[in-house]
C-alpha cells in the first residue's frame, strides 16, 4: 500500500526553485530516507508534507486519499507527524506541560506505551530549557508519536543525539514501519541510511537525482548527492557519516607551549553540584583537541565559558598569556578566539539579519565609515567572496539568514569564525552537524588547515569517529569533569574513550 504519493511538487521563492517537480512514493511498512546536499530542498519537502508550507505546484495523496494540508493542524488531523530541525517545544515549560498542550486523551497511558514499545522515556517534571539538546530531541519525537501517526516525517533528527539515542531512534523508526506505518527520514549520515532504510531518494538542486534506491551503499549514494564520484573525498569522512571504518589521525609530536589554558574552571549548577568541576585544559598552537562525551556532560558550558556567554564561578581562561575569563565577546574576537556555538540558530547567528552582516558580526567596525555609517556595499562584496569560497548556497549576501537552509547557516557561522585574523584559537561545537558529505569534507579540511597555520583548536563532537580522525588528543566530558587526554593514535583509544563516555573508569 502506498502511504504517501507526491507528484510534480514545486516550490519557488522568488527566483529560487527550492523544489522543482519532485515525485516521491513512500510505501507503508517502510523507512524511506531522503538525502541530498545542503539546500537540496529536503526541509522544504518536509514542510510541504507537514502543512507548514503551500507548494507552488504539484499534488499529494495519503493512503490513497487526496492530501493538500494548508496548515500543520490539517496534516496532524490526517495522521502525519513531523519532527523539524528546529525545536517546537516551549522552553520555559516542563516536559509534561508541553505534552499537555497537545490535548490528547489518556496521556499517561500513551506515554507508558511509548516508553515500553520504543524505550522513549522522558523526564516529565524537568523544564525543557534545562535539558540537553539530545533529551529535548527525544521529547520532540515523543510529542510527534503521541498522536500515533500513520506517517512520521523526521527532518535530520539525529544530529544532536548520542550513539545510544540514535540506536533507539532508528529502532523506533523500524518498529513504526513494522507496525504498518511509514517513516520519511531526512539524514546526512549514510551509516544510518544503511542501517535503517528500505528505500532512499536523493534530491539535488530541488530535483530528484535518484528515486526508489535500494542499493544504499555510500558508493552508490554519494555521487548522486554531490554530482561527482565519491573517490575524491577524504577517508576521514567515514567517522562523521557514521560509516563503519574508523580512520585515526596519525600521531604528531606537539612541542610548543600551550596557547590556550583553562585552569581549574568550575561552574556551579543552580540547584547544587557542578556543571563544570575543576576543569584544566591546555592546547598548543597547531594542536587539535577533541572533547568527546554524551551530550549534557558539561560540553555546552565549556563552550559558553570560552565564548563569554558564561562567567565561571572559579578558574581562569587564558589565551596567549591574556586573561579572558571575564572579557567581552568583542575582546575575545580581537584576541583571536573564534567560537562556533552548538546551537547555531539561537546563539550563532541572527536569523533576521542578512548573510553579510552575519558573516561580519563582531567585526562590523571594519566596515564603518566615519565611525557611524556601515559601508554595506563593501561588506556585501567581501561577503560574496566568502560565500563562494565556502560553497554557501544562498541567494546572495543581502538575503536574510532565515532564507538559508540549516546546513548553509552552519557554513556561515563557521566561515565567520575561521576568518578571524589572527585566529589564535578556534573552539567549535559540533562543527559538521547538519552538513552534507561534501561540506563535511571541506569543513574538516579547513579545521585542519587552521591548525596547520598555527591555531589551537578545540572540537566538541558527539561523533567519536569524527574526533578520532581529526584530533591529536581527545578528552572525555563526564558529569562536568574532563578525563585525562587520550592520544587518538594510541592503541585502543576508541574503546577507552567509549568507556569513559558512559562513566566507566579507564
Ligand atoms: N524562506 C525562504 N526564502 C528564500 N529561499 C528559501 C527560503 N527557504 C528556503 N529557501 C531556499 O530553498 C532551498 C532549499 O532549502 P531547504 O531548507 O529545503 O534545503 P535542505 O535540503 O533542507 O538543506 P539542509 O541540508 O542544509 O537542511 C535553499 O536554496 C534555500 O536557500
UniProtKB/TrEMBL annotation:
It holds the Pfam family ABC_tran. GO terms for molecular function: ATP binding; ATP hydrolysis activity. PROSITE patterns: ABC_TRANSPORTER_1, ABC_TRANSPORTER_2. SMART domains: AAA. It comes from the Bacteria. Transmembrane segments: none annotated. InterPro entries: AAA+_ATPase (IPR003593), ABC_carbohydrate_import_ATPase (IPR050107), ABC_transporter-like_ATP-bd (IPR003439), ABC_transporter-like_CS (IPR017871), P-loop_NTPase (IPR027417). Residues 4-230, 260-504 form the ABC transporter domain. Keywords: ATP-binding, Nucleotide-binding, Sugar transport, Transport. This is Simple sugar transport system ATP-binding protein. It comes from Actinoplanes lutulentus. The lineage of its organism: Bacteria, Bacillati, Actinomycetota, Actinomycetes, Micromonosporales.
Amino acid at each position: 500500500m502506498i502511504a504517501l504519493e507526491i507528484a510534480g511538487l514545486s516550490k519557488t521563492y522568488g527566483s529560487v526553485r527550492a523544489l522543482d517537480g519532485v515525485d516521491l512514493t513512500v510505501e507503508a511498512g517502510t523507512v524511506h530516507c531522503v538525502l541530498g546536499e545542503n539546500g537540496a530542498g529536503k526541509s522544504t519537502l518536509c514542510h510541504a508534507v507537514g502543512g507548514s508550507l503551500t507548494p507552488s505546484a504539484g499534488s499529494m495523496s495519503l493512503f490513497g486519499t487526496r492530501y493538500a494540508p494548508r496548515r500543520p493542524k490539517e496534516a496532524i488531523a490526517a495522521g502525519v507527524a513531523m519532527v523539524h530541525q528546529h525545536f517546537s517545544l516551549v522552553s520555559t515549560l516542563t516536559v509534561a506541560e508541553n505534552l499537555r498542550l497537545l490535548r490528547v486523551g489518556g496521556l499517561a497511558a500513551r506515554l507508558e506505551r511509548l516508553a515500553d514499545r520504543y524505550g522513549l522515556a522522558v523526564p516529565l517534571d524537568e523544564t525543557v530549557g534545562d535539558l540537553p539538546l539530545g533529551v529535548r530531541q527525544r521529547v520532540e519525537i515523543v510529542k510527534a508519536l503521541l498522536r500515533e501517526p500513520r506517517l512520521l516525517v523526521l527532518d535530520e533528527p539525529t544530529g544532536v543525539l548520542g550513539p545510544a539515542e540514535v540506536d533507539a531512534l532508528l529502532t523506533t523508526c523500524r518498529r513504526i514501519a513494522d507496525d504498518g506505518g511509514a517513516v520519511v527520514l531526512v539524514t546526512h549520515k549514510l551509516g544510518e541510511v544503511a542501517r535503517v532504510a528500505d528505500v532512499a531518494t536523493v534530491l539535488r538542486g530541488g530535483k530528484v537525482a535518484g528515486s526508489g534506491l535500494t542499493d544504499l551503499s555510500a558508493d552508490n549514494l554519494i555521487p548522486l548527492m554531490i554530482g561527482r564520484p565519491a573517490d575524491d573525498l577524504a577517508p576521514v569522512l567515514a567517522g562523521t557519516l557514521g560509516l563503519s571504518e574508523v580512520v585515526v589521525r596519525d600521531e604528531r609530536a606537539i612541542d610548543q607551549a600551550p596557547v590556550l589554558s583553562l585552569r581549574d574552571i568550575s561552574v556551579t549548577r543552580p540547584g547544587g553540584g557542578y556543571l563544570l568541576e575543576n576543569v584544566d585544559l591546555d592546547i598548543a598552537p597547531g594542536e587539535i583537541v577533541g572533547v568527546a562525551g554524551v551530550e549534557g556532560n558539561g560540553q555546552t558550558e565549556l563552550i559558553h565559558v570560552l565564548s563569554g556567554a558564561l562567567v565561571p564561578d572559579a578558574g581562569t581562561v587564558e589565551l596567549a598569556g591574556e586573561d579572558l575569563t571575564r572579557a567581552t565577546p568583542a575582546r575575545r574576537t580581537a584576541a583571536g578566539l573564534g567560537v562556533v556555538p552548538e546551537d547555531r540558530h539561537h546563539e550563532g547567528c541572527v536569523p533576521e539579519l542578512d548573510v553579510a552582516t552575519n558573516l561580519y558580526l563582531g567585526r562590523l567596525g571594519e566596515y564603518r565609515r566615519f565611525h557611524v555609517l556601515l559601508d554595506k556595499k563593501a561588506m556585501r562584496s567581501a561577503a560574496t567572496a566568502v560565500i563562494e569560497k565556502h560553497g554557501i548556497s544562498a541567494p546572495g549576501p543581502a538575503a536574510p539568514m532565515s532564507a538559508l537552509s540549516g546546513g548553509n547557516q552552519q557554513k556561515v557561522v563557521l566561515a565567520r569564525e575561521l576568518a578571524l585574523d589572527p585566529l589564535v584559537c578556534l573552539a567549535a561545537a559540533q562543527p559538521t552537524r547538519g552538513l552534507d558529505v561534501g561540506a563535511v569534507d571541506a569543513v574538516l579540511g579547513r579545521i585542519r588547515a587552521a591548525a596547520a597555520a598555527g591555531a589551537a583548536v578545540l572540537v566538541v563532537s558527539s561523533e567519536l569517529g569524527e574526533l578520532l580522525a581529526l584530533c591529536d588528543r581527545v578528552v572525555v566530558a563526564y558529569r562536568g569533569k574532563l578525563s585525562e587526554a587520550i592520544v587518538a593514535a594510541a592503541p585502543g583509544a576508541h574503546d577507552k574513550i567509549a568507556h569513559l563516555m558512559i562513566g566507566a573508569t579507564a
